[in-house]
Each structure stands twice: as structure tokens, then as C-alpha cells.
Amino acid sequence: MSEQDRLIRGIRSAAKKRDKADAARREAINDLRLHCEAAREAGASITRIASEAGLSRQGVYDLLAERP
Hints:
Elements: H1 3-41, H2 46-53, H3 57-65
Helix pairs in contact: 2-3
């Protein structure tokens, strides 16, 4: 196998890892959104949700406004 082929294989491998990481991130964001929505409906304050989620209050509002 040539050096170029080895490098191309490395690029493909890294791209697959990136795709898996992107999918995991989307899933985690969706899960966080669902939990934030449920907490808000249960009466939790945006400030508390933000603190627990490691987000700003605006980040929580933005997250809750997003639709997958």
C-alpha cells in the first residue's frame, strides 16, 4: 500500500469518526431538549435548568425554541 493510500484510509477513518460524533451530538442535544422541556413543564425555572445543563439562560431558551 502506498503512502497516499494509507493517508486516504486515515482520512476515511477520521471522517467516519466525525460522522459518528455528529450523530451522537444530535442525539444528546435532542435528549437534553426533551428533559429541559419536561422540567420546564414541571415548573422548573429557566435559571435552574440552565445551571443544571451548563448553559446560559439564553442557551436554554434557544434550545427550547429549536425543533428537530
